[in-house]
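User: My collaborator and I are trying to settle a disagreement about how two of our proteins should look. Neither of us wants to argue from intuition anymore, so we agreed to look at predicted structures for both before our next call. Could you fold the first one, then the second, and keep them clearly separated?

Assistant: That sounds like a sensible way to settle it. I'll keep them separate. The first protein:
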Amino acid sequence: MKKIISFLIRFVPRKYLQRVSGIGLKVLGVFYSGNNVTCPICQHHYRIFLPYGRINPRPNALCPHCQSLERHRLIWLYLQEKTNFFTTPLHVLHIAPEACFMQRFESQHGEGYITADLESPLAKVKMDIHKMPFDNNHFDVVLCNHVLEHVADDIQAMGEIHRVLKPGGWALMQVPFFSPVPEVTLEDNSITDPKEREKLFGQDDHVRKFGKDYAERINRSGLKAEAHTFAASLPAEQTHRYGIEAKEVLYLGRKE
């Protein structure tokens, strides 16, 4: 199973996987029935979550029903417990929207929930994150997870997020960190060979490897960086039940 999932992720374009993976994974989930883990997003129970990853798939990672990963389940719990996301109608911009969230977030925020992406068939708005087609001070919340490692200029992209946020608004902006995490973010847009990018940046479609200076890069965009160790505060039984990585830090950028 690990080899199959790794092959599909590496060699089938994301826009095609998004169209067809849902049904297949739900069928596969029948063979993982059990009650050892629970997805807090869709509330389905399994013996174990599916493995997920390009080269060395992580065990117990992918929910067969809603396609959530560890970070998605952590974000869901954080939004529930630490924000007003599920109690107040908000204007939300969701960049590169994840299938596990879309219907649920739209039910919560209605027309105030906007999805956007350069090529995803799931998104309502087709856009380049470097130049968003939205007015200044428009959104209460921006969600932008595992996107900034793909774009030509992450500082400019975060600057656009700052522009479209209302004063007091915030953005949740997760990025991958590959061990060993460098002190300073590594990037070189001149490197275009997929194998070289995979070697240097951790994945063949990444253009940078984020370092310990990520919060500083958020600050450079005009946003005020916040690093939340919410996952570490959860009981061990809960992180196991929900398949969450306790060491993951949630990064927010707030517009003052």
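The second protein, kept apart from the first:
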Amino acid sequence: MRLAFLSDIHGNIGALEAVLADCDVAGVDAFVFLGDLVFFGLYPQPCFDALSARAPLICIKGNTDANLEEVETFTPRSEFERQLLEVVRDCAGRLTSDTLGTISSWPVAETLTLEGHRIMCCHGSPYHFNDRLSAPIADEHLARRVSEEPEELVCCAHTHVPQVFGMYGKPIVNIGAVGYSFDGDPRASYAIVDVGEQGLLPEIRRIEYDRERYAGELDLKARRMPLWRSTAYAVRNGMPLQDWKC
């Protein structure tokens, strides 16, 4: 069985459509989504609809998915936070109430069991969507805790940097980001995991799409909401601006 793991789409419908087309060519059987679907992108509802049409086995809540729940309660304490709230409200206002409710219901982590194999699915870590699992290991306590989980494989995201590595013997696949990357490669990133008699075999895939077209649309949006410049920069360069805070 071939599983596609997608994450950090961030409202980028062009990148998502390119990844889904590659999944069709690759013969993917089922999908898993690991969080951050709509916020900080121009096409939140179309991304939700396109993902939902593939009937993911699991959908995980990411940190920016959780931001949508804070629209009515968040109090800005700086100019940056004021602008950030404006962008969150803009995103939430372009989603249906049913979509908002569905995203709010997603878990922080969930175990997927297929053909006798168990995969831990999470955004940041099994414990919180803001944790970061990456190599080299930055948090020894977190790494040891993750390594003690019973699942054979941990699939995560959040860092926007795709990696396949180990934490004290526990295989980790950070699938990277569909919407925009932070590793210097601006192509969309996702992972395929083959599940079968040979175990769990992960592969990171990088997919081209019309980045300049989308970045141009972000430039236009940034005339009214300056924070969109950060997204446009990442789409073009595969790297965050130095002052990126999201």
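Some points you might bring to the call about the second protein. The chain has one domain: 2-236. Strands lie at 2-6, 30-33, 58-59, 109-114, 117-122, 153-156, 163-167, 170-174, 188-196, 199-207.
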